[in-house]
Design brief:
It contains ten helices and four strands, in the order H-H-H-H-E-E-E-E-H-H-H-H-H-H. It is mainly α and 256 residues long. It has two domains: 17-119, Winged helix-like DNA-binding domain superfamily/Winged helix DNA-binding domain (Arc Repressor Mutant, subunit A), CATH 1.10.10.10; 120-206, no CATH class.
Length: 256
C-alpha cells in the first residue's frame, strides 16, 4: 500500500476483534421478556463452540437461579434456543450444548435514507396474539403427549404441523396414540418426530370384536337348543311298566 492511496485509513483496533453483530429485530421485536432477550444477546456474544456453565451465566448476567432458569425455559419454549446435555468420552454427563436458532422472523425498523419503514404497530400486535395462541395450543398438545422431550423442536414442528392439519385433528391423534394399548412406552416417539411424520393420521384402529360376536351367537344357539330339548322332554309320554311291556322292553337283560 502506498502512502498516497486515496481513502480513509486507521490502525486495527481491539474492537475489530471483540464485538457482536445482532439483527436489530432480535432486540426490538423478539416477543421475549426483557430477561430472556438479554440472555439471548448475552449468549450471542460468545464464540461458536465456547463452553459455558450455568454458574458463569448467572454470574455474568446478574440473573438469579430462578430468573436464569425461567429465561432459558422461555427461549426454549419459543424456539430460540435448543439445550442438550453432552456426554463425555468416558460416558459421564458433560456440559450443556446451547444452540441458538432464529425462531421467528420479526420485522424491525428498517431505515432507508431518512424514511423509517417496516414499523406497523397493528401488525405487530396481531403477530403477538398469534404467538400467544400458538403457545396456548402447544401447551395443550404438550400436556396430552405421553413423552416430553425436546420441547423446542416440538414447538417448531407443532407450528409447521398446523399448516397441514387442524389442531383438533392433531389433538385427537395424540389422545388416541397415548391411549393405544399397543404403544410401548419405551419406544414412544419423540413429539417432534411424531408431528413431522403426520402421525395424527395413524390413530389407533378400533379393536376387532368379531370373535366376541361369534361367541355370543354360539351361546344363543346353544341356549335355544337346550330350551328345545326341555320342551320335547316335557311333551314325551312317560314309560310306564305297561308301556314297556307293550314295546317289548321289559324282557331285555344284559348278558354278563
Amino acid at each position: 500500500m502506498t502512502t498516497n492511496e486515496p481513502g480513509v485509513f486507521r490502525p486495527q483496533l481491539s474492537v475489530d476483534r471483540d464485538f457482536t453483530i445482532i439483527p436489530n429485530a432480535w432486540i426490538r421485536n423478539s416477543h421475549l421478556s426483557p430477561a430472556s432477550n438479554y440472555l439471548l444477546i448475552y449468549l450471542m456474544t460468545h464464540e461458536v463452540g465456547y463452553e459455558i456453565t450455568f454458574s458463569q451465566m448467572q454470574r455474568e448476567t446478574g440473573l438469579g437461579i430462578k430468573g436464569l432458569r425461567a429465561a432459558l425455559k422461555e427461549l426454549s419454549n419459543k424456539g430460540w434456543l435448543e439445550m442438550e446435555r453432552t456426554q463425555k468420552s468416558n460416558g459421564q454427563l458433560g456440559a450443556y450444548r446451547y444452540t441458538i436458532i432464529e425462531a421467528t422472523d420479526p420485522k424491525g425498523t428498517v431505515v432507508a435514507g431518512t424514511v423509517a419503514q417496516g414499523t406497523d404497530i397493528k401488525k405487530n400486535n396481531i403477530e403477538e396474539n398469534k404467538d400467544r395462541e400458538y403457545i396456548a395450543l402447544f401447551d395443550e398438545f404438550w400436556n396430552a403427549y405421553p413423552r416430553k422431550l425436546d420441547k423446542g423442536k416440538a414447538f417448531r414442528a407443532f407450528r409447521s404441523a398446523l399448516k397441514r392439519a387442524t389442531f383438533e385433528d392433531i389433538l385427537a391423534g395424540v389422545i388416541a396414540y397415548r391411549n393405544d394399548p399397543k404403544r410401548n412406552p419405551d419406544f414412544t416417539k419423540y413429539p417432534a418426530s411424531w408431528l413431522n411424520a403426520d402421525s395424527w393420521e395413524n390413530a389407533a384402529a378400533p379393536q376387532d370384536t368379531s370373535h366376541l360376536e361369534r361367541r355370543d351367537k354360539e351361546k344363543e344357539r346353544s341356549e335355544a337348543y337346550l330350551r328345545e330339548m326341555e320342551e320335547i322332554a316335557k311333551q314325551a309320554v312317560p314309560l310306564t311298566p305297561e308301556l314297556k311291556k307293550k314295546l317289548g322292553l321289559g324282557g331285555w337283560k344284559n348278558n354278563v
